[in-house]
Structures are given as structure tokens and as C-alpha cells.
């Protein structure tokens, strides 16, 4: 408001007083004779018209610039509103009773992360939470019921859970330095060949019989996890945390980055 008033006062002063000064200055520079009163007034009015036209042009340009700024702001607000709607719908899909709908919600979340970088951390955390809830270890349902379903899974995992882990492993939503918290999840028999799981945390998880061939497992945490009969052929295990991990029968052929042997796993007393 203050700036607008100041600009208005300055323009008013220029239009009122500057023309006479410009005409007088021009006469002095040219060294010509003094103008008659009528000619002087005509010259002053001509200069005033030019100044008014210039001021009008500046006001018009300012209006165009302000309109552009307001339009851009409105576009951003509208776009953010669209992302919020998409995010809310994807959350609804993830909470569906149908596996196919939840699977669609996973891919919707990945698309949101690709299109809106400021949502990436939220999407990664949400999908990790989704996996923990949908595939907990030990199972929340009767073990017999879960075991009866597992032979029908593709790649050892239900479609929605497998899709979420695959999306996380593509890392488009994983912010640098962030860890994906998948503690105490049931990944028995999971086919995770060549997945980038670096920095993930599988503490207390069950990966018995999982196929981790060629996976990047650097800085990954497997503390107290079970990897019995897991296939770790050609995996990268640089700085992986295998404290108290159960590697009974695991195939580590060609695995790289292995440090000292992990601490022995002790079965709980019965």
C-alpha cells in the first residue's frame, strides 16, 4: 500500500512539474531563443502527454505482471489441491478389502511421488507402514491360514505387498539418507532378485527362503532377522548389519562386502 501511494505521488509530481523543467532544460542545451508563452505551453503539454502515455504503459505492464503472478499462484494452489485429492484417494485404495484395489493404490502412490517430489518422503513412509501392516511377523492371523494362502502368491508375496516393496526398491520416493523401516515383516520365499534394498531395515523380519540374488544390501539391517535357506548369491553386503541374524543354510556364493562373520544365532530356550 505504501509503495503504491509513493509511486502515485512520484508520477503525479513528474506529470505536474517535470514537463516545464524538461522544456526549459532543452532550450538551455540547444542555446536557442526563448519560446513565446503559447509555444512554451504547447511544448510543456506535448511533454506531459508523452509522460502520461509512458506512465499508462508502465501501469499496464505492472497490471500484466501482477496478473501473471496471481495466475501462477492460483495454478500452484490448484495443482497442490489435485495432489492432495490424489493422495487421499490412494490412501483409501490402500485400506481397501480387495488386494487388487490395494495394489492399484501402491502404484498410485508411486506416480504421486514421481510427479510431486515434496511428497516422496511421505509416500515412502506410508508404503513401508503398509507392508508392516499387511505382512507382519509373526502373522496377525492364524499361521495355518496364512500358510494356506502363500502357495497362491506370485513371487512369494501377495500382489499388494510385493508391489509396495518393488516400488520402494525403485527408490524414486526414497530420500537420500532415509531408511525404509520394514522391521518384523513376513517375507518368506520372497522373490527379490536384483532389488536395491540398500539402507533398508529388516530387523526381526523373516526372510526364510527368500531369493536375494544380486541385491544391493549395503548398509541394510538384518539384526535378529531369519535368513534360513535364503539365496544371497552375488549380493552386495557392504556394511550390512547381520548381528544375531540366522543364516542357517543361506547361500552366500559370490556375495561381496562381507565383514567379519556375524555373531552366532542362539535359538531361544524352550
UniProtKB/TrEMBL annotation:
Q: Which residues form a coiled coil?
A: none
Keywords noted in UniProt: Membrane, Transmembrane, Transmembrane helix
Which Pfam families does the entry mention?
Answer: Pentapeptide
Q: Which residues are listed as membrane-spanning?
A: 50-72
Record has Membrane as a keyword: yes
Q: What protein is this chain from? A: Pentapeptide repeat-containing protein
Organism, scientific name:
Streptomyces plumbiresistens
